[in-house]
Q: What sequence folds into this?
């Protein structure tokens, strides 16, 4: 039996951390100044509608630069406490509304990176909600990505399942500029949609959703050299995740772990790795391989 401490003591890469939702609820309530309605007592939010409501409320609360900086700091401090050495930080483009211009948005993120540079490396990835209808994110995203500041983009939302031409072309443009494409498969529930999305977007990373990675999926992942990222989405079975990860590792397919949204999942990267290891389906060595630098 391994403990969380076994993983905390190891320097780690968090492969998927949404900074807008990267803190515990106790810290969030102090920052926001309010309690979230119907928030689960155990801190684990499985209701998709509630998750979306929390994200919306959070972005409304983060209406000024100082609010966003405070929110980011809470997430980064959680990572420092977990001994994270590199943080793949998903920065939601929706937060640009707090500062108005792409230049000021980059400056805002830079302040966070510089503030904590002695503690950990923050690698910013631009998060894009494909369902966002309040503004056209393409223009803003192109300006931000053209700065060379972001490692790439993280695309999520229901629209990506439908393989809309504008999103596919946008992803292709991102890769053409040498940037990374992260694809959130959280909304994908079947193998066929997974294969269609993976073939259309050709991502560098796929954040695992509910669809089972069949032999066909694994062949595509291996062929396209796609890394699969797992986060502690509470509706997913730990035993099933561990068994699938073991299968990928045995097949030579790269897999990594991310904390995802700590506010919603209430599980740090170290806690997640320990939980997977303690299923007995992954060895300590294999579990460490998923998070080590």
A:
């Amino acid at each position: 039996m391994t403990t969380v401490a076994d993983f905390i003591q190891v320097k780690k890469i968090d492969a998927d951390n949404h900074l807008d939702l990267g803190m515990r609820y106790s810290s969030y309530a102090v920052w926001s100044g309010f309690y979230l309605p119907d928030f689960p007592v155990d801190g684990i939010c499985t209701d998709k509608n509630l998750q979306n409501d929390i994200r919306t409320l959070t972005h409304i609360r983060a209406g000024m630069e100082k609010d966003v900086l405070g929110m980011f700091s809470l997430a980064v401090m959680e990572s420092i406490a977990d001994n994270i050495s590199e943080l793949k930080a998903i920065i939601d483009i929706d937060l640009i509304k707090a500062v108005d211009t792409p230049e000021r948005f980059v400056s805002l993120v830079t302040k966070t990176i510089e503030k904590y540079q002695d503690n950990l490396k923050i690698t910013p990835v631009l998060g894009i909600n494909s369902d966002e209808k309040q503004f056209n994110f393409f223009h803003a995203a192109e300006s931000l990505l053209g700065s060379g500041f972001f490692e790439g983009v993280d695309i999520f939302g229901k629209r990506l399942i439908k393989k809309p031409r504008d999103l596919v072309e946008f992803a292709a443009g991102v890769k053409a500029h040498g940037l990374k494409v992260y694809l959130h498969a959280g909304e994908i529930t079947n193998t066929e949609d997974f294969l269609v999305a993976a073939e259309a977007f050709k991502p560098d990373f796929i954040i695992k959703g509910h669809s089972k990675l069949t032999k066909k999926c694994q062949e595509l992942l291996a062929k396209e050299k796609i890394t699969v990222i797992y986060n502690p989405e509470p509706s997913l079975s730990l035993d099933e995740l561990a068994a699938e990860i073991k299968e990928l590792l045995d097949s030579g397919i790269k897999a990594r772990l991310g904390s995802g949204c700590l506010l919603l999942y209430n599980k740090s990267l170290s806690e997640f790795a320990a939980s997977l290891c303690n299923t007995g389906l992954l060895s300590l060595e294999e579990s460490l391989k998923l998070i080590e630098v």
